[in-house]
């Protein structure tokens, strides 16, 4: 069957109000407006995708300017950093040191009250009452009891945690191959973060032991970090600094696995929800995504690791000389019960959520300053383009 189309004259005779051939041809950019069409010049045309991206980028303009200035100076000093080079891992290690050391030290007052309430739930009724009593008895310095070992310990831990995570993630990705690395990416995040945290906790453990003892003894058993280390080793030997290592692994390894795997997953979900791909957003918007994903991941981390956190505090404060780890754990659990493992959870959720969000913000801002990409990303570009096309079709 052959389909034929009416010639232009026949169409003009049938539809007198149609635009004439003199006004429009097939090669014209667009046909002239008929009386049934709206006047397009009165309405601005816009793309829903571009509009959303523009709004996100406008919000980050001020931050981007500051970031660009700092970034240009830093990159002049460090030079170009190749991905997965020794200089790259050194940068990630430095970023982790800053992210964990600064944030944990900043929330020392929260950590102080949390540890004391975990050891003795009847000591304070609430945070503000606790801070009031501590400040009246010991002054402002008392509220920051334990800040020294916190700064030293979590700086060391953050360096090994973030630098190690980047290293192990690349190592395991190469071993698995590109296809399997993408298919089993969550397993990859979990194993890489666990591997890094096992090493990081060995660096943290001596300082954590001193911090907890300083915070849970009134008055503190030592006034300085290394004074505390000397006091512990003099009485118990070097082993006294590491007697909390097993419960520390029990707390920190699940915490870090949740922290990194959930962060990577939430970042991907955010970019999947937003129009456009990650690369189309400014660095300020990308670091805002890092903070949001980090905060949400922190809430999950706090819940998963809280029972072990309580046990670490109890063991460091109440473990008897020469008492075996298993025996000490069983004795403490018998005293506090299952409900006692959740003392201070609300405070810790607030503390860890804020802390984790700020850590990712600092870490990714530091990476951007050195000319490196932020952590995590959206789905593959081709899937993102299909999603954007579907969004435009629905809005249209």
UniProtKB/TrEMBL annotation:
Residues 381-396 have a biased composition (Basic and acidic residues). This is Mitochondrial carrier domain-containing protein. Belongs to the mitochondrial carrier (TC 2.A.29) family. Residues 375-396 are annotated as: Disordered. It is found in: Mitochondrion inner membrane. Keywords: Membrane, Mitochondrion, Mitochondrion inner membrane, Repeat, Transmembrane, Transmembrane helix, Transport. Solcar repeats lie at residues 87-171, 184-269, 285-369. Coiled coil: none annotated. It is a multi-pass membrane protein. It comes from the Eukaryota. Pfam families: Mito_carr (PF00153). The keyword Secreted does not apply. InterPro entries: MCP_dom_sf, MCP_transmembrane, SLC25A3/Pic2/Mir1-like.
